[in-house]
Amino acid sequence: MEALRxxxxxxxxxxxxxxxxxxxxxxxAVWFAIHTVFREVEPVRAFLFAFDAPTFSSVDPWALLLSVxxxxxxxxxxxxxIPTLVACCAAGMVLFYMGMLS
Length: 102
Prior knowledge:
It is a single chain. By secondary structure, this protein is mainly alpha-helical. It contains 4 helices and 2 strands; from the N terminus they run H-H-E-E-H-H. The chain has helices spanning 2-5, 8-37, 61-75, 81-97, and strands at 41-46, 49-54. The protein has a two-stranded antiparallel ribbon with strand order 1-2. The mean pLDDT is 93.
């Protein structure tokens, strides 16, 4: 492995692969966020672009509140990912069984 570290061609190709993987993960994160927070999306197709535009009037306030709460817990209060996930799952189940989510 140490011999491969100095190989510039291999390092460049691995950097490109890493950038592609980060792009795919970011794309999935944005897709899931839009489809979770907004109840309705409208497909937009123009030239080479294709994406789902959210309908802002269809925002799900409970999903938005849980998302913001999770972000605050993780980034502000440094709560771990697993406890935050468990808390959000529990909160979602409580909201569902109370009839506030469909």
